Amino acid sequence: MINSSEIETQKNSPESDYQTSSRNRGKHKIFIGMSPGVGKTYRMLEEGHQLKAEGIDVVIGLLETHGREETAEKAMGLELIPKKTVFHQEITLWEMDTDAILSRQPQLVLVDELAHTNVPGSIREKRYQDVEIILNHGIDVYSTVNIQHLESLNDLVAKITGVVVRERIPDRLLDEATQVVVIDVTPETLQERLREGKIYAPEKIEQALQNFFQRRHLVALRELALREVADNIEAAAETTEKALFCNVHERVLVCISTYQNSPQLLRRGLRLANAMKARLYGLYVENPERFLTKEESLLLETCQNLINAFGGEFLRVKSYNVSEAIAQVAQQYHITQVVLGHTRKSRWELFWKGSPVQQLLKYIKGVDIHIIDAEKTLNSSS
């Protein structure tokens, strides 16, 4: 038994509508992990057995055990569609037989190693393309893939591990999937499994530990996998009712003005965003009837360049009601933290107009507000 924790995002109905009546596109469930050996294939086979016990017609379309006994044993009892023989450069190779699967018409097919590149001369270049054909015929698919095979992460993975991954899948596959499940284990557990010979053959263990399976590599890849499913959860949540939206990531909104302390305020916001590993936004609310001086325009340009350099996003909206505009932007961008600069007002002004924070609280709920003293910010930067 492989012990692992799972994080799952599900975009459609949680029920498995396995019906004998005709359907449109099949459902696609992807098991993703930070590296080989975390237990993706094992978990996929385990769920296949559970569904077979419930009366679902389940077959294995393609299985790669890599000599792992636990995985091979777990596949026993499930029907295996024979592979198709392919001859290439006088060498006999085998690939998934997509036509045989379509002819068999199961309710669910299990497909290992989604990012695999088919033998040259095959009808389709990549295995994920075969999977899409199966899905288009109304057959459900469970598949497995590692995080380093995502196209958008290719350069980052190469920078982390020094390994350029040649086999990749487009990110849209995760976006289009019905469910995405992260099979998660700690780097220490994975290294122990490697030393026990449960991932690679004995002669490859030490080399793997010194290269791809270094702890720092696994920590970074694990974070990528967890972050990817978090993004997936938020993307799925955004398609539901706004009232049900739940932030997975922190988002920091720094509200700037034409005051001289705005660049320093942005830097404070950046420190907060870095501490929370949050996305950073800068917002300027412009009065439609007020024209900016040259100095004010240059200051806002400086702020925009600064936030772009931080990797954040600069927002500029027009409104007569600053507090209401901030609240609307906070709702639109799912902001969790708002940073404001506090300027000292006379008691007379506070009596008639109220403080900016009090005004903002009328419009905004469920967001933390950080008040930064404008004078202290300027003094600390001088």
TrEMBL record:
GO MF annotation, one: phosphorelay sensor kinase activity
The keyword Thylakoid is annotated on this UniProt entry: no
Signal sequence annotation: none
Disordered as annotated region, ranges: 1-26
Domain Signal transduction histidine kinase osmosensitive K+ channel sensor N-terminal: 25-233
Cellular-component GO terms for this entry: cytoplasm; plasma membrane
Keywords (A to Z) from UniProt: Kinase, Transferase, Two-component regulatory system
Pfam families registered for this protein in UniProt: KdpD (PF02702)
Enzyme Commission number(s) from the entry: 2.7.3.-
Domain of life of the native organism: Bacteria
CDD domains registered for this protein in UniProt: USP_KdpD-like
Biased composition annotated in UniProt, kind: Polar residues: 1-23
Stored InterPro entries: Histidine_kinase_KdpD (IPR052023), P-loop_NTPase (IPR027417), Rossmann-like_a/b/a_fold (IPR014729), Sig_transdc_His_kinase_KdpD_N (IPR003852)
Protein name, as recorded: Sensor protein KdpD
Organism from which the protein derives: Planktothrix serta PCC 8927
